Amino acid sequence: MFRTIICLFFILVIRANAFAQNWTDAEFNKANTAANADYLTNEEKNIVLYMNLIRLDGEKFYYTFLEDYINNYNAKVRKYRNYNDLKIARNNSYYLSLLKHVTGVKNLSMFYPDEKLTALSRNHALDLSRNNLDTHQSSNGDKFSKRLAKEFPNKAMSENIDFGYSNSLDIVCHLLLDCGVPSLGHRFNLLDQKYKLNTVGVSIQPHPSYTWCAVIDYVSQPTFYTNNH
């Protein structure tokens, strides 16, 4: 009960901030597909919420939540001598290309959490933590596709991993911007339409080198492709 109250409070805080930017209660309700997933933490639930808000209205997310993330990030790194190198400037090529990619993204299908897939995400995040790794490959050499195929055979699948953040908005926006990743693989997973990814597993765990890591696994039911980023 206490955990549910905390989760509801956090969602209400998100709503209070976003109402000024014209996000509606109906949009939050539609995006909040993980609300009753008691196997997820509050931050993990809100990763699903933010990913779905992007898919509901990508351009509005760009000018609201992403803008908040960039402003907060730039404020945090202002104390460093190389601030000009660290900050996300408005002429940043990844920031500009993202606007092109999210313009017109509206009312895409939602991601829905899955307990079995989340267990796979959690196992990989814990493996990364125990062995101080930063890869899609497991410590035993298995590729992510082999890990997921054990429970989800013959399905389209992909995986995002984020390092350094434990906050849901930070994780999602970091992946969405995908700065320094020329393939933009993380971004395209979030905006996916090609592979019909619709089922997600999410886990945030401590990491010895990066403080935190978040593993997000995606599966499409019931198409027959494999996609690796």
TrEMBL record:
Claim: Acetylation is one of the keywords in the record: no
UniProt KW Signal keyword: yes
Matches recorded under InterPro entries: CAP_dom, CAP_sf
Pfam name, any one: CAP
Domain SCP: 106-213
Segment forming the signal sequence: 1-20
Keyword terms of this UniProt record: Signal
CDD domains named among the record's database cross-references: CAP_bacterial (cd05379)
PANTHER family the record matches: SCP DOMAIN-CONTAINING PROTEIN
Name of this protein: CAP domain-containing protein
Organism: Pedobacter jamesrossensis
